[in-house]
Amino acid sequence: MRDAPSNPSIPLIEARGLKKYFDTPAGKLHAVDGVSFAIRRGQTLGVVGESGCGKTTVGRALLMLQPPTDGQILFKGVDITRLPQRELKGLRAKLQIIFQDPFSSLNPRMTVYEAIAHPLIIHGIYRASARAEGRVLKLMEMVGLTRRVVNTYPHELDGGRRQRVVIARALALEPEFIVCDEPVSALDVSIQAQILNLLQDLQEAIGLTYLFITHNLAVVKHFSTEIAVMYLGQVVESAPTAALFRNPLHPYTRALISAIPTVNIHAKQERILLRGEIASPVNPLPGCRFAKRCVFAAPRCVGRDLPAEEAEPGHRVACARWRENLTPT
Amino acid sequence: MNSPNAQSAAPALNRKQGLWREAWLRMRRNTSAIVGMALLAAIILLAVFANVIADYDTVAIKIDVANRLKPPSRSHLFGTDELGRDLFARIIHGARISLSIGFLAEMATLALGMALGSVSGFYGGRIDNVVMRFMDVFMAIPSLLLAIAMVTAFGTGTPILVLAIAVSGAPSMSRIVRAQVMSAREQEYVEAARALGAGDMTVVLRYILPNTMSPIIVQASLDMAGCILTVSSLSYLGLGVPPPAPEWGAILSAGQSYIRDAWNITVFPGLMIVITVIALNMVGDGLRDALDPKLKR
Predict the structure, then answer these.
(1) How many domains does chain B fold into?
(2) Which residues of chain A does B194 touch, with a Cβ-Cβ cutoff of 8 Å?
(3) What ipTM does the predicted assembly reach?
(4) Record: contact B197-A95, CB cut-off 8 A
(5) CA–CA separation, A124 vs A131, rounded Å?
(6) Which of A14, A126, A142, B294 has its CA 20 to 30 A from that of A253?
(7) What is the pLDDT of residues A306-322, one digit of tens each?
(8) pTM for the complete prediction?
(9) How many domains does chain A have?
(10) Which of B10, B188, B202 sits opposite A105 (nearest CB)?
(11) Considering only alpha carbons, which residue of chain B is nearest residue A108?
């Protein structure tokens, strides 16, 4: 069915020094600036960060929807940034994406059936839309859509069902890797859990690998095997989920974790409030990009770029003062 | 309780026109659109059954000098023209010519405008610049003048007429298509289609153009009124459909020498042009209201 699982020591997908710059009238906007990570088959990397930190661009670049300015993307060890268009099209089946807003990511003029069947037709698996019926119905069942909605249009469905259609469409080509770009943040809270559970069930059932983009650490806590925290186009800290929550090293990560609301009203919670504006991603200066807002900022934080250091196995942090075990006063 | 497989067979096809049906429901409540459609339907019916009502060869173009310049009467509903031909017969046969040339010209305008507009809107950059500057040149020439020039250069006849009107109408149509395509291109579902591996053609034909159709259809229905006017204007100037074909503009033109003695020769074809153009505009406005998603509650 699928090509034989390659060497398990090779990550399914890997980014090396990924960069994406955009030209703006003010200068080069560094949306993604030297991001590296690797995701093994069946695992989930959560990418966390605030709006504008480049997390969405990482997802788009990874799928070559916005080809990166520099860096490599290795899918099963093959650099896909250099592939010719034709080979890339074949590969698209293996690399899929689920968008934030299921309303705008579905073509308003296509019924649920057509939306799910269309990828199968694009890739020539079926010649005519009508032949794909069995497959479409099976996909709908997989994502928990009732048969009743097969002929409805997106605007007739609620957000949760729409997102299920988007997931079914992404699954149609039997992908191995899916970028989930804030897949639940546009949904009602009551629906969010359903969709998250669905994504998790699908991962277990068919061995999917996810890159899960979100601004909400709480969402990825139970979902990801590893987490990468992004700030202004760079990964400031990355670690296995448990290690990151047990021992956050970067001041920005700590601020994010402290912002997760808790259910216990008696728990005294130290909120770390970030002051100041996020720096401009246009022509950034060398040095820590978080320094302007960091309470621990010191002169040595700026002036030169900080390489990520390995604090413990698999736990990398890009902070000049992480060894000092600083606590806010 | 799942319905049996047989019931869910042939999916998508039966309810395919859902969005259009909604537009129709909205349009039905619009009085002026319904009046426009009724008028248009009446003219189309007259045109379709023109030969049943009055035969072309024996009535519409048959010269009967003894009966020339007769006022409207029971035997000649709209009277007769300067050669004694029945004016009513000529006018309903003229509807055939006006409607068919108007329709063909509009289809040609649409084809040209959509092809140029979507290429230029979709690819942008240098291609866009070249195509649009070319369109600007055409837009700078008054459309009637352009049509006259083409007819003079290539001779009269329906194909040339259709082409002349299409060429002069294409620039404005292509601008509208371009603007629509440019905004639809940025939609997330287009990116989703790319992620699914869809090529440029598929993206444009299945994802972009279907979502840009409403303003284009509105524009086309309003444009068609203009096309009919242009055909009539050209015929009036003697550059349209050659005689003895009873084109409205040509009848009007011939009638103006007799306007003092026989008002009916100019008034009735003029009235037909006005009614047709107004009906098309009413339908176009109704379509705009019905298809505009911003008016959706």
Answers:
(1) 1
(2) 65
(3) 0.83
(4) no
(5) 12
(6) A14
(7) 788 888 888 998 888 88
(8) 0.80
(9) 2
(10) B188
(11) B211
